[in-house]
């Protein structure tokens, strides 16, 4: 399901308003996504329901660089988890709350307002919450994924 969601979103990126031509002929290709034109669709089922995702560049399910944006409604929470590669996060809109550790503790959230950046190394346990409608940009070297600290937090284990 995750691969299908990413594939559908990747096709949307191919139809972005401005994309240089010539990739098939060996020429360089530029990707430009003007503000407000990212095409959001359902987030992959590894994330809790309610978020939307837009893949801006690359294929997060494969090796290589990727850039994607995650739209989250107010209060959206991602339970404690970690990644197997560096995670680079830029807050595009809203406030992203991040805490470190294996248990969500709202008193330990660090508030990252619009324009903030963070990098978490592999296997660092953390959790997150949106304060107000929030959009973050994630970029890195794929494949992207996450592992929940507590397997019972994995939304794929329950009906969506």
Overview of the molecule:
There is one protein chain. The protein has one domain (2-151): Sandwich (Jelly Rolls), CATH 2.60.120.10. With 160 residues, it is mainly beta. Mean pLDDT is 88; it is low at 1-21. The chain has one helix at 2-14; strands at 18-19, 31-32, 41-42, 52-58, 64-72, 77-82, 87-100, 110-113, 117-120, 126-142, 147-148. The chain is globular and about 50 Å long.
User: So, the CATH homologous superfamily?
Assistant: Jelly Rolls
The average pLDDT score comes to 88
The H-and-E topology, N to C, reads as HEEEEEEEEEEE
CATH architecture level-2 label: Sandwich
Instruction: Decide which structural class fits the backbone.
Output: mainly beta
* CATH top level assignment: Mainly Beta
